[in-house]
Request: fold
Amino acid sequence: MQHIKQYVDQNRQRLLDELFALLRFPSVSADPKYKPEVLKTADYVAQKLRDAGADNVEICQTAGYPIVYGEKIIDASKPTVLVYGHYDVQPADPLELWKTPPFEPTIRDGKIYARGACDDKGQFYMHVKAFELMMQTNTLPCNIKFMIEGEEEVGSSNLGIFVKANKEKLKADVVLISDTSMISMEHPSLETGLRGLSYLEVEVTGPNRDLHSGVYGGAVANPITILTKMIASLHDENNHITIPGFYDKVIPLTAEERTALNNAPYDEEEYKKDLDIAEVWGEKGYTTFERTGTRPTLEVNGIWGGYIGEGAKTVLPSKAHAKISMRLVPNQTSDAITELFTKHFLSIAPANVKVKVTPHHGGEPAVTPTDSIAYRAAQKAIAESFGKDPIPTRGGGSIPIVALFEAELGLKTVLMGFGLDSDALHSPNEKYDIFNYYKGIETIPLFHKYFAELSSAV
Amino acid sequence: MQHIKQYVDQNRQRLLDELFALLRFPSVSADPKYKPEVLKTADYVAQKLRDAGADNVEICQTAGYPIVYGEKIIDASKPTVLVYGHYDVQPADPLELWKTPPFEPTIRDGKIYARGACDDKGQFYMHVKAFELMMQTNTLPCNIKFMIEGEEEVGSSNLGIFVKANKEKLKADVVLISDTSMISMEHPSLETGLRGLSYLEVEVTGPNRDLHSGVYGGAVANPITILTKMIASLHDENNHITIPGFYDKVIPLTAEERTALNNAPYDEEEYKKDLDIAEVWGEKGYTTFERTGTRPTLEVNGIWGGYIGEGAKTVLPSKAHAKISMRLVPNQTSDAITELFTKHFLSIAPANVKVKVTPHHGGEPAVTPTDSIAYRAAQKAIAESFGKDPIPTRGGGSIPIVALFEAELGLKTVLMGFGLDSDALHSPNEKYDIFNYYKGIETIPLFHKYFAELSSAV
Reply:
């Protein structure tokens, strides 16, 4: 499509500058100290939607951070695409590991380094700019609605309430989200499933105060020692999760599904080399793709207790803590797993400590159909802009909104992500390739075009 | 001894004010940011020794923090007591748990609350003031030397070098240290043994960067999970340490020693109530006194890895760390145990992570004889000032200097401590009873008196 390439070429620098401005906001939703910055980010997104040509742009207040809404209804008889994204980002620490400041986007060999570069500012902003492109070139073929939230990285806790309360406003035919990855630019892919999440924090209390490890060591249960034994017991020798009932609801993949899944290109030597590990790890009897895409997992996201400062302190601490999350697969539910974990974790606590389990947030797993008009539109759009058909994959991450949309609005979602696993999401030195950014802006109008065409053909 | 009580009564407030001034110095040797304060503390101690009447007071430089020396030689033919203490303190964190600021001494129901109130500022300063008392009342019966160091809480790493280089200067007949506890003021006691120490830091590295726990979780070894499994394996189901060879050198107590040890008053209900724990913990087949006083132990003093900030971050971290220390009993040596731990810890590391073990510092265990002139002098002094004979006990803590003195100077040590286990050493709200402070100042001159008398009687 000539007009697309032309528009992107003519606006190349500005498209990048606007993204950089967006990336400079430290919109960390997990840490209250960034609140003013998160709110400013919402204002910026609203302004950019207006500039792009959206109507009825609103900053919708919630109990937490606001949701930015905007729309362009060209013809009520045409199909409507609801674009979802999030303007909040993960915390940037450990800061010392960033080569350049997380909130000062920097280009190194064709890549934009910044927190949120890929997750999700770089990706949702492609939709704002693709929309501008269609408006400026009079090629918008369908109605479009935007819903950009600010709490995705902390569990989207207020989005459900908003969606329930605004079903009419959000009425659409499909949800389009770019917040996932492709295998590579040579192997474009489309995610057909996402894992759910159950995130908890545990606290183990031993003595009522920190103790001298010489005076009390060996006679009083050390909460760190107890916590390590409790956590260690959560995986057996096959790295199978030991929580009773944890796998009960999991539906085994069919032989065909496993074959299809493992047909996607995967070079284990490359994978290990990229991460500098000698061996992969995981549940016995499954491949890496199966482990990350189709099996539930349990990870310790953080642990702390006792003296963690410089030098040595001979203390037997009063408390030890850990943040633990589980990724869920279709048919498991966040609440049920949270309850199973809590019950089990409390049950394995020895009598000499007190244990507290606090749920943080959760999200439900989801699978997207591969035979829908919307999925076919995405396939055609990618095939045209990449020159080859996308490979269907199962993503390991979680976008709770996907299950929410299906439950509340009866809408299926298309996960048309342009990131790469190597983009270091949630890590220091998160990046997004400039190539992918422009490629997304060029591909998205094709999705709308084919979605409109295939819909009217029905 | 009338003159002692009289002197203390007449100087009660000043004796307290001077200690408060000493406690206001945040002399934390483990944290480089306190360096200027630690050095000021040494100056203060030197000045107070001069004021009390010591000669040849020197601030002796070392590769680390200086050692304050001072002496009073009244007659070369009389015995000489070498008083050891330390002016450095443990870090104060966790700060939020202090009821009043750690470096602003505060009195609550007869107790001085401050970091170092008991360990060891409050205790070594009793000796400075008891020396002043003997000088002012012309009752100093023997020669006295002071050696107050500033690196005890970080392993006294430069003291050995200093002692080796100054054997003549430090020539004495006994070492006297107040840096330990009594069972209670109703049950005065004398420690006859101390445990050694081996302190290490371990680092487990998984992937070369923090990863998104959804994208990689379940397929890449999480260094926290691996570290918890490694630490959990260090104690078996009987809380016996699993490091091969760890107990080889330990000499079992005789039936008599065990009986004597367990005759000391111990109220388990009180012990548990004080710590708010439902059960004690420890190596199967031993009592609490045996576990803390006569058995080697292994404690995790600190652990950290991943995201430990506010809220939730779904990260699979690159690294996890722990600080681990072992308390050693007579016949075990710090270097040998450090080597055994390192070898074992590396040997249990799975191939999918990299493990690094870094020794921090160590100290050798020691047992003090109960039949020496010095021990008997301490017994008589305590019996006179408390009105009952002290109970011999085995301390769980470590004062590496004790073994060092024996090895380098051929001197035995008397551990005449006036603290209490409930003083919260190394913990928030460390305290020292005003009563114990004055009691120490009154008892110490009696030690010197009886030590001189019994020595001349030989």
In short: Chain B has two domains: 1-194+365-456, 196-250+296-363. Residues 131 and 212 of chain B are 64 Å apart (CA to CA). The domain at 1-194+365-456 of chain B is CATH 3.40.630.10 (Aminopeptidase).
